[in-house]
Amino acid sequence: MIWVLCDFVWVENASYAVKKGARRTLIRVLETILCLAHPLMTYITEGIWQRVKTLAGAEGENIRLLHHPESNANKVDKEAEAAIAWSKQVIEGVRNIPREMNISPAKKIPLILRGGSSRDNELLNQAQSLLTKLASLENITWLEAGENAPASATALVSDMELLVPMASLIDVKAESARLQKEINKLVKDLSRVEGKLNNPKVVDKVPTDVVAKEKDRLTEMKNA
């Protein structure tokens, strides 16, 4: 929740009211954390609180005199929590794609959405600026029904599909060469391990647990 509020402060096209509200909430959250941590970190929390108490609208000589924070279930906004959870799923789904393909996280990528519900569309309209910033997106488009999608890496958020076009991510020739190199290495390692396990002179001299590990490794390579 806090990381979302921090980014709302810096989203360029966020309204003044949104930025002011985010700053205010961050200060209140910080003050609450300081109160909870005060018994364990007395001097540190007091020093920080003295710097932020004016911004928090707090009164008193020290943090010890504040009322201890208490939970209020009536103030829990389930709809807001669900919206934040949705945004986190989208951001994590998009971030995982370049990570799995060894693409620099600094590279801005286009995102295509397919399927989903009217609620997904509503949440996208609310959080588009935030998603664009946090997921390093070039743009976000929604695929119309019946429209063909380009060859893409995919991730799912419930019934909504996240599509990241491959053409924007990789050099096909370079990626093919990289994959072939990995295949050649795997074949070489597979042949070497099989050779050791099929050689009684080697197997008889090696501890049983080592042989078992090599057999497990051989199985993993064959299933790769």
UniProtKB/TrEMBL annotation:
UniProt-listed Enzyme Commission number(s): 6.1.1.9
Ranges in coiled-coil conformation: 169-196
Pfam families reported in the protein's UniProt record: Anticodon_1, Val_tRNA-synt_C
Domain of life: Bacteria
Keywords, alphabetical: Aminoacyl-tRNA synthetase, ATP-binding, Coiled coil, Ligase, Nucleotide-binding, Protein biosynthesis
GO molecular function annotation: ligase activity
Domain Methionyl/Valyl/Leucyl/Isoleucyl-tRNA synthetase anticodon-binding: 17-111
Claim: Metal-binding is one of the keywords in the record: no
Catalyzed reaction equations: tRNA(Val) + L-valine + ATP = L-valyl-tRNA(Val) + AMP + diphosphate
Domain Valyl-tRNA synthetase tRNA-binding arm: from-to ranges: 171-222
Gene3D superfamilies per the UniProt record, alphabetical: Isoleucyl-tRNA Synthetase, Domain 1 (1.10.730.10), Valyl-tRNA synthetase, C-terminal domain (1.10.287.380)
The keyword Nucleotide-binding belongs to this UniProt entry's keyword annotation: yes
Protein name per UniProt: valine--tRNA ligase
Species for this entry: Microbulbifer echini
Organismal lineage: Bacteria, Pseudomonadati, Pseudomonadota, Gammaproteobacteria, Cellvibrionales
